Amino acid sequence: MASRRVVITGTGLVTPLGTGVAKTWKSICAGKSGVARITRYDPTGDPVQIAAEVKDFIEEDHFDKKSSNKLKLFVKYALVATHMALEESGLDITDDNCGRVGVITGCGMGGLPTITEQHEIYLTKGYKRISPFFIPTAIPNMPSGHISMATGSKGPNLTMTTACAAGTHAVGEAYRHIKYGMSDVMISGGTEAVICPLGVNGFTSMKALSKRNDSPAEASRPFDKDRDGFVMSEGSGIMILEEYEHARARGAEIIAEVVGYGLSSDAYHIAAPPEDGEGAMRSMRVALEDAGLNPEDIDYINAHGTSTPLNDRCETLAIKTVFGDHAHKLAISSTKSMVGHMLGAAGGIEAVFLALSIRDQIAPPTINLHQPSPECDLDYVPNTARKMSIRYGLSNSFGFGGTNGVVIFKQFTG
Fold first, then answer.
1. Which candidate, 230, 224, 260, 211, places its Cα nearest to that of 43?
2. Enclosing domain of residue 74
C-alpha cells in the first residue's frame, strides 16, 4: 500500500506546569520552571529532595470516587490528557469507525509506587492482604488499555516500554500504523508517575539526578557548564494522529504534519551513550531519510537535553555530525529545563511541545543556561523563547538500553 499523510489534530497535556495545554504552553514560552521540593512523600535526609510534580491535578474534577480508587496516577494522567486531545480534535469514535482507531502509549516504569506499597503490605501483613487489583493497576500497558476502554477504540492497542524513548517510539509507531494503512486514527503519547522514594533514590544511586535541593528551579540546566544531573518529573502528553484525508473530510483543524520517524540502538551500554553519539546520530539520519529531507531542511530541534554531563555532550556531537555546518544555524532547546525529565512520558510531552512550536512558530527556551559547557557550543535558545520560522522540527529521545527514537514534524500548509 502506498504511504499516506499523517497529521496531528488534537493535543493533551498534564505537566508540572499545569493541567491543560494552554496553561502548560504559556508557562513553557515564558520560561517558567515546574521543579520544587518533593511533596508526594517526606524526602528529609535523602540526597535528592526535589522533583517536578504535577501540582494542580484535582482527581475529583475528572473521576468519581470508585474509578479513582481503581486507577493509579500514571493512568489518570493519560486518561485526562486523552480527553483533552479528543476534545480538541473534535473526533467522534463510533461503532462504525472504532476498529480503525488505535492506541499506542509509552510508559517506562508503570506502577512503581504501587509495587513498593504492595510489597510493604506483604512484608508487614502477609500475602492475604495483597490487593487483587495490584497486578492490573501496576503493569505499564494499563494506560493504553484504559484509554481504549474509555474511548471505545478497538484498533491496535500497544505500549512501548523503551525507557526514556518510550513516548517518542509510541508516536513514531502510531505514525507508521496510519502511514501504511493499518489505522486511520491513533491516540498516542506517553505517561509516567513514579516520584516515590524507591524511584527517586534508585536514580540517585546511579548518580543521575541533580542535587540542587536549595535551588530547585535552577536544578535542571541542560547544556550548562554546571549541570549535575536531571530532575525527575511526571505527567502525560497525548496526541491524536490522523490520516490526512480522514481529517480533511470531517473538517478537522490540523496542528502539524508528521513526516519522519527514525530509531536505532547504540549496542553499547545499559545506561550511557557512546562517546561519539553514534546511535543518536543514526536515528536522526533514519528519520531524515524517512521524511525525504536534507539536514538543511530542519529549523528547530527539541533536544533530549537531560542536563546530565554525558547526554548533553554526546547529543551535541551527534547533532554536529548529522547537520554539519547547518548545526550552528539550528535553534535547539531542551524543555526538560522547565518540566524536568518525565522518563517514559518525555517523548510524548515533547512531541506535543514540538507540534505547538511549529503551530505558533516559536522555539521554547532552554532556561538556566548561563555558562554553556565548552563542548556544548550550539544555539540552545538560552533563557528566552524565540519567534522564528519553523518549517520542519525534530524531537530526540534516547533511553537506557541504548534505544533511540526521533520524530520529525512539518508545518501544515495544506
1. 211
2. 7-402
Q: Using an 8 Å Cβ cutoff, are 305 and 280 in contact?
A: no
Active site residue 177: no
pLDDT for the residue 332: 98
Closest CA to 203 of 223, 231, 226, 224: 231
Query: Active site includes 169?
Result: no
The residue from 164, 196, 314, 376 that is catalytic is 164
Instruction: Report which of 103, 139, 169 is spatially closest to residue 403, judged by C-alpha positions.
Output: 169
pLDDT digits (tens, 9 = 90+) for 340-365: 999 999 999 999 999 999 999 999 99
Residue 226, domain CATH: 3.40.47.10
pLDDT at residue 1 is higher than 70: no
DSSP state of 59: G
Residue 412 lies in a domain: no
Instruction: Name residue 117's amino acid.
Output: E
Question: How far is residue 208 from each of residues 110, 204, 325, measured CA to CA in Å?
Answer: 20, 6, 32
Give the chain's count of helices (H) and strands (E). Answer: 13, 15
Assess whether 304 carries a catalytic annotation: yes
- Say what the pLDDT of residue 66 is: 86
Among the listed residues 196, 304, 314, 376, the single catalytic one is: 304
Instruction: Tell me, yes or no, whether 361 lies in a domain.
Output: yes
